[in-house]
């Protein structure tokens, strides 16, 4: 069961996870006893049961050598009876019920506080937050997000907002307006799951992205799939030619890591670098992952 995606979601296994956690994670979604509805999610948000786990991202082009400079905040539902619940089971519900807005605010707020705390402790990190299409609808949201971040003792420059390619292209003129406002507030912007949506290259060129994040479906098995490697190389070249930094997600093995490094990928995220873990486990994971990164050939 160590190979299941679910167990990996738990991150560190040093914690005493409940049997319910483990059953939750290995059972297929259809057979689970608990199927959350809108009222359950509302209660979870009110009680503070939705929290960020953090997954490190290795920066390969850092001036002083490869380093962990950023983490991605990934939502987890810590249910008092049903254990840890993966975002695939409640983000769609949050999106269809309008609760994606309060969910995003709490992810941003908790991440901002955590980041400020880590920086005060000498651990200098930035954080990436996933932003659903609904969150880039309202012209007031950029101001609101920046105010939220500042109230929590952090700065928009410490944040990267990950917007899926399909989310950004849905209503591209309007999205462009909001993304520009976010960028002017100081937020960094990343085009998440790149390669799975349908972006026109002109739109990609005009949108104020800082980073292009190659979807993990191209990355996981790229060593055995020449088509995937063609897409990866083309994405890296396109990103660089547009002045963007290029990240690959879903890197699970050393050979994939080495391939992406050799192709000039700027940063790498995946189980090979580190699993998503609770905030308390992140400093130790960053230290351990940084040690491993320093062994990389320049
Ligand atoms: P994403 O933004 O593309 O995040 C990457 C997902 O890939 C995460 O799944 C992460 O745990 C997983 N992953 C990381 N490294 C590897 C790897 O090496 N191999 C494999 N197979 N998977 C890897 P997770 O945490 O289950 O999140 C799934 C999706 O849920 C995210 O995809 C994102 O779209 C969404 N999500 C998570 N948290 C939030 C949130 O706070 N707000 C919104 N709107 N969406 C969220
Ligand atoms: Mg993401
Ligand atoms: Mg992604
Ligand atoms: Mg993805």
From TrEMBL:
Residues 34-290 form the EAL domain. The keyword Phosphoprotein applies. One of its GO terms (biological process) is phosphorelay signal transduction system. It comes from the Bacteria. One of its GO terms (molecular function) is kinase activity. The keyword Lipid biosynthesis does not apply. Pfam families: EAL (PF00563). Keywords: Kinase, Phosphoprotein, Transferase. InterPro entries: CheY-like_superfamily, Cyclic-di-GMP_PDE-like, EAL_dom, EAL_sf, Sig_transdc_resp-reg_receiver. This is Hisitidine kinase. It comes from Marichromatium purpuratum 984.
